[in-house]
Sequence to fold (333 residues):
Amino acid sequence: MPKLNKQVLLASRPQGAVTEANFRFVEVPVGKPGPGEVLVRNEWLSLDPYMRGRMSDAKSYAKSTEIGEVMVGQTVGEVVESNDPNFKPGDKVLTPLGWQLYGIASAKELTRIDAKRAPASSYLGILGMPGITAWFGLLEIGQPKPGNTVVVSAASGAVGSVVGQLAKIKGCRVVGIAGGKTKCDYVVKDLGFDACVDYKAGNLLADLREHCPKGVDVNFENVGGMVLDTVLRVMNLHSRIVVCGLIAEYSATEPYGYKMLRSVLVNRIKMQGMIVFDWKDRYGEALKGLSGYLTEGKLKYRESIVEGIDNAPKGLIALLKGDNFGKQLVKLA
Fold:
């Protein structure tokens, strides 16, 4: 085992878009686990939009990453050394160890995964936080009913792709919003959405009206900004909006000025923010449902992979620009 551990630290807070200059690479000794602790060799690192918020010092639902700290993130890895009876070397685990090749965590922070049942990387995607977010956001807040029209923005992403497929399973008409013909083709042909609107084509409102002739009953919002403002114009009476993400606004230096909030009043829309941690006591319920559908072939997923920890900053920057297909990952080993 190497004596040195490579880490990626937050070097500075972004002013606008994230750049590689916001990160710093260091090498430190691997370290030894103490009582009740486990040393893990990370194999996969998850990259997620929420990381942009953690790089900021603005008040949010979770603590910001401090300058000089290891960048936050979930990983999947293998136990190298354990001082806890619940884990042994060779176990595959889900961890909160962040952007580094090795890490020491309390055994209580680790979750054992079954890499024989599903690929290890899937526990960071469809069987991880994105899949669980889709499950509870759609079913608990969106409350889709058979025959409803469901619109999903960032439809080819890690969360949106699962939301749309779950909505189809529930008997809904599903219309995605994505950037570019390639992503839209994937959403319809591979994931089974009824239609997908390319917002980059410049006809978002007209295209939504064409593909949602009965209006929109549920909007699963991952983008915000112009996209959300436009969807507000086609929402139905007593419809629901799940505000899961606002990726279009994360790097903005000024908040987006919404023009169509009147629709919430006129249509008596239920609009609710969604943070997956609110359902932490019920994660098992979602994982059981997701794994069942995955085994039955009712759910498909795709991964965008960058190789090596040195390319992790490039991967996050690409994700925030919308260049990824499905779940964005870094292969560490």
